[in-house]
Amino acid sequence: MRFSLLSTFAALSSVAVLIASATELSIANAPLWLLGQVGTVEASVAAAMKVDLASLDLTFGAALKEYS
Residue 37: what pLDDT? Predict the structure, then answer.
């Protein structure tokens, strides 16, 4: 469960860093801006996919446990 949340956050953070770089945002202002963008993107993706992230993480965790 934790692994999928961390990897999702890392992927969204990477995208936000690329956007920040492309728009030449100040590095000093980037952390607060990135946090806002990551939350917005994550909520938008979840809404578009109509997926409950908590249940998805539980399913993913159960699958890992089964195959390990």
Answer: 62
